[in-house]
Fold this protein.
Amino acid sequence: MSKRTKFILVSLLIAFMLWLTSMAQVDYRFGLVLAVGAVSYILSVWVLFDDLKGIEWITLIILPMMFTLGAGLFSNFLPTAFPGMFGKSISVETSQLLAGIFKGVYFLLVGVGLYGILLIENIFSVASIRTIQLFRAARSVNFIFTLVTSLFFFTVALSLKLAFWWVIPISFAVSFILAYPSLWSIDLKNNYGPQVMRYSLSASWIIAVLSGVLCFWPIKPFMGGLILTSGLYALFGILEQRLSNRVYLESLLEYGVTIIIIIVVGFLTTSWVG
């Protein structure tokens, strides 16, 4: 069986298992999603086993597992029915059917995303041995999937209406777990190991503090998750340039403008009257 075939089978299986968890009773879903995340880790190791070495046993397997967990947890907040479309009310049966179709498309996209992540991790494992042309493109796509995964987790954390002393450590842990492999992939020879650790801790602490601030802001969970994700986007971008020893003013302005726009949209979409 070719490696690409294994990627397809694993992606479809994980997506199907996540879909099954969404059909279970609410009280059991969290535990089931954790179990699927563990299965995702094991299967990711299986398909990438031949090329794994050293720290890659962690760095190359984190994103597939975290993407699975994030997508599974986020799926609990998908709509169970659409009361109306384009300003028109629809029947209960039709609204539930549309919600079911939407959920099916969601898990299909999760499978496609997991397949793309496995391809990226395979490219990283090969690029650590020899130079390949796809490495730069793989890093860009890996960056996007890292941000999507963080959006899943941040939105879920804010949706649960937890106290700030829970949201802060959760945000810190999620940020660090995602930051380290993302920054590590800049140089697969691991020449910046200590710096990657320091930068990952620093970025995670900033996001954790920002998440604590959002706990006192009556903002919608998805919008709050988007603000935290935009913060990660800017921090990752700046730190990656710093590790590569090439910082561009245009990029710094781009990151700053992006954060400002997201925060302004957050203010405009927040109801301050209760």
Observations:
- The chain has a mean pLDDT of 85.
- The first helix runs from residue 3 to 23.
- The first strand starts at residue 84 and ends at 85.
